[in-house]
Amino acid sequence: MIRLILEAVAILHLGPGIAFALLAFGCDGDLAFLRDTCARSGLSAFFSLTAWAWLALLLGWGAMLLLRRRRESAEASPAAE
């Protein structure tokens, strides 16, 4: 249970952190790779990037959870011969 809580808190805090890093380093000068996002207002861009970061983190967390369950079920079942 504590592991689930820590993972959820990590996802909630990493989403805005990733969004801030993308805005801080992705909107620099002529080489801005987030041109469309940088053109919007700062708060709107931050909310949008936070939502996308949360989505990516949740998808990664879900994949990790599925792999963990598969490994646990493989260890629990006897090897087929």
TrEMBL record:
Keywords: Membrane, Transmembrane, Transmembrane helix
Domain of life: Bacteria
Transmembrane regions listed in the UniProt entry: 45-67
Protein name (Swiss-Prot/TrEMBL): Transmembrane protein
Organism of derivation: Derxia gummosa DSM 723
